[in-house]
Design goal:
Length: 308
């Protein structure tokens, strides 16, 4: 069985930062990544609040830079497989990746999040057939056509701003009257002639067999329903943890996010968590990067103590 000083699970901003710091500490490490480095950055059009980029930076550009930053380090082994077993027995951590067992003295979990679903019948079936979680990837399929976006947070509003440049009209559907999104984004949105805000409104059904054909909307104030005919729906109703198989006694919050202290230590010695998978309030690229660096520092301190 191959053994590493540390294993980093995930190659988003948190995982890359952790790997970079560990590599620079001279550790022998492995990094397990399902897809190319970047995580959700690969589905993000632009980041405007990343310090040092006053003009903003495209998600894919930042993802490319993260990948390039890892290149010079030959002490990082890249594993392009999902972790399907993760066993912690005292100080020993054994993981199964692509049918091969590996062991590591420390593990940093940075597997991120995945898009939450509405939970409506037909939703799964129509995903990729009119329903999408990525305006950047799929917006152009609906050029000059009307679409709907659902959600009231920063993701829904930011992606609406992007879509409004491509499509004929965006119906932004939110279940409450108040939006969670930052006021700066909301004021930009309100200035756009081709965006309608549909607050206190929920989607009660998704229509279509092979392709999305429309939505039934319910106005929660009036109790009335209407049919909205369109072929594109972008769902941004938050995230849930994208957790690989995790040890059963790893402490997680009610939403499944991993609990850590401020140094990214979990309740299991030698197991750390960083980035969006962690139980916390502020999920940003910049906080993910900070978590990754902190987790690497804690893992390094842990390894030093282990080896006396
Ligand atoms: P979020 O802030 O959790 O907002 C999710 C939205 O979806 C909420 O408005 C929520 O409604 C609504 N929602 C949840 N479940 C729903 C359901 N079943 N049906 C209908 N609506 C539902 O998620 P997010 O916007 O994806 O953002 C996640 C994190 O990333 C946040 O911390 C956010 O600040 C951050 N983010 C930051 C930026 C940025 O700074 N540029 C950009 C994107 C994301 P309620 O409001 O009623 O709960």
């Amino acid at each position: 069985m191959k053994h590493y000083d540390a294993l980093v699970i995930g190659a988003g901003p948190a995982g890359v930062a952790a790997a970079l710091y560990l590599a620079r500490f001279g550790m022998r490490l492995a990094m397990a990544e399902k897809l190319a480095p970047g995580g959700l950055l690969l589905q993000t059009f632009e980041i405007e609040n990343y310090p040092g980029f006053p003009q903003g930076v495209k998600g894919y550009e930042l993802a490319d830079s993260l990948a390039a930053h890892l290149e010079p380090y030959d002490n990082i082994t890249r594993i392009h497989d999902e972790i399907t077993e993760f066993i912690v027995e005292g100080d020993s951590k054994r993981l199964l990746a692509g049918g091969e067992w590996i062991s590591a003295s420390a593990v940093i979990i940075a597997s991120g999040v995945q898009y939450r679903k509405l939970g409506l019948p037909n939703e799964e079936k129509l995903l990729g057939r009119g329903i999408s979680h990525c305006a950047l990837c799929d917006g152009n399929f609906f050029k000059d056509q009307p679409v709907a976006v659902v959600g009231g947070g920063n993701s829904a509003v930011e992606e609406t701003l992007h879509l409004a440049k491509i499509v004929s009209h965006v119906h932004l559907i939110h279940r409450r009257d108040e939006f969670r999104a930052a006021p700066l984004y909301l004021s930009r949105l309100k200035a756009l002639p081709n965006v309608s805000l549909r607050s206190s409104t929920v989607i009660t059904s998704l229509h279509g067999e092979q392709q999305l054909e429309g939505l039934t909307l319910k106005d929660l104030h009036k109790g009335t329903e209407e049919f909205l005919s369109l072929n594109g729906l972008f769902i941004f109703v938050g995230f849930e943890p994208a957790a690989p198989v995790l040890p059963p006694d790893l402490k997680r919050d009610r939403g499944g996010f991993i609990e850590t202290d401020t140094e990214m230590r979990t309740n299991l010695p030698g197991v750390f968590a960083a980035g969006d998978i962690r139980s916390k309030l502020c999920r940003q690229v910049v906080t993910a990067v900070g978590d990754g660096a902190t987790a690497a520092n804690s893992a390094y301190t842990y390894l030093e103590q282990q080896h006396g």
